Amino acid sequence: MxxxxxxxxxxxxxxxxxxxxxxxxxxxxxxxxxxxAVMADxxxxxxxxxxxxxxxxxxxxxxxxxxxxxxLKAAALALVLALPLGAVFGVARxxxxxxxxxxxxxxxxxxxxxxxxxxxxxxxxxxxxxxxxSSDVRPLYAVVTGLVLxxxxxxxxxxxxxxxSLPKGQTEAAQAIGLRKGQTMTNILLPQAVTAMLPAxxxxxVVIVKDTALGGAxxxxxxxxxxxxxxxxxxxxxxxxxxxxxxxxxxxxxxxxSFAAWxxxxxxxxxxxxxxxxxxxxxxxxxxxxxxxxxxxxxxx
Amino acid sequence: MFDFLEGYDLxxxxxxxxxxxxxxxxxxxxWGTLLAGxxxxxxxxxxxxxxxYVNVVRNIPLTIIILFTAMGLADTFGVTMGAADDVKTxxxxxxxxxxxxxxxAFVCEALRSGINTVPVxxxxxxxxxxxxxxxxxxxxxxxQAFRSVVGPMAxxxxxxxKNTTVAAVIGVxxxxxxxxxxxxxxxxxxxxxxxxxxxxxxxxxxxxxxxxWVSKRVAVKR
Lengths: 301, 222
Fold this sequence. Notes:
The structure holds two protein chains of two kinds.
Chain A: H1 11-41, H2 47-50, H3 52-55, H4 57-92, H5 98-112, H6 116-130, H7 138-164, H8 168-176, H9 181-219, H10 224-235, H11 238-270, H12 280-285
Helix pairs in contact in A: 4-7, 4-9, 4-10, 5-7, 6-7, 6-9, 7-9, 8-9, 9-11, 10-11
Chain B: H1 10-39, H2 44-58, H3 62-74, H4 87-117, H5 120-128, H6 133-148, H7 150-163, H8 175-185, H9 189-218
Helix pairs in contact in B: 1-2, 1-4, 1-8, 2-4, 3-4, 4-6, 4-7, 5-6, 7-9, 8-9
Family (chain A): Belongs to the binding-protein-dependent transport system permease family.
Protein name (chain A): Amino acid ABC transporter permease
InterPro entries (chain A): AA_ABC_transptr_permease_3TM, ArtM/GltK/GlnP/TcyL/YhdX-like, MetI-like, MetI-like_sf
């Protein structure tokens, strides 16, 4: 299948495309060659720097795997805590009462407008000053608190978008059979919205996993990125460590992304919900800050 | 009440944040557009490179990229961005480089979805006039695509503004680094945090509002 943007290449276009390919390949090879030359020059390609990853099991048992475990722990805790909080705020923003809707909107917009790093730094210092949480677990608390505050507000928007994406008939039918507002929400709307939201929630997990790295760099949480520093300090293999850890992140997040896509397809096929399936793209649209939420164009109605 | 602010260059730090944002935004717009062009181009190798770049970069934490620019690019590869002796300028430029590399992937994806919103007939009409791929893209498709992606681009810009704080990990003296210094040394934790939070709300909220308004104005009516 060819793109609609260009004609099926004829003989001249084919020749031209080959020229472009060769030039582009040459440029890529030049950059790659330079990188490899420098790395070889600095001794980063020496077998000794790469060998620990296959021959020395301590690399995995003392550095990488515990660090990966910490990354996953922080991400999982953050998601588990952020989900109910996000659901509460998402539903609160849809409340009929202005005094519930207003403050909920203010809180959500406030935390979405602030960098996660600021939230982490604040929680770290907050726990240090006002609580007696021991300093071993304080980084974890700080990272999880920062992530929860931010992601709960993002998930609140996801929940709201999920509920708004349901057809109006659902609410009307619930009212017609005499359900109260709370019952309509918990029995009719939320269960359907949750299935529609599942892929978006898994995609948000990718964002959370990536943000845990901030905790390693600024709050001192012993997660995957921090293991680069400790490990390269021990084996003097900074570039190999960076590459291995980056590959681990890519594989982990790629698995999550694929899972989200698979889930999206499954939910769509299953048709358990009358709502639309929220995809990662729509989730990115939700990243906006402003009074007017982007909810698939349905908020205007 | 605000005595503790003395000795700290609050506005200076936020000015660095703004500079980081502006330079990185321009850079990622250019690099992201090039990537989007590659991803829809007739040359398979460029398409492959574009999608590989986007998929890898989007799945790596920004922190690792920024840290790599300092510990990998600068220290090992000797890329000093023309400021070998001036540490302050060097880390600033390296941070911009990292931010551009990361956010270009998101710009590319936003733009690509914008290209998909342009009706097929537009490209077909352009081709039937005899325009080449580059002409179709730059004269017909991209101008319309850009107008339809102002909203998503605004989201990337807001995320970029917030992500400039990550530059603190390599010691760029922007808002988050100043905040971590201040809450370390001063007692007024809540007040300091409120000031910095307010600063970021001031930066991101108007961006969202203004670009939201712009996106409604320029959207192609179909």
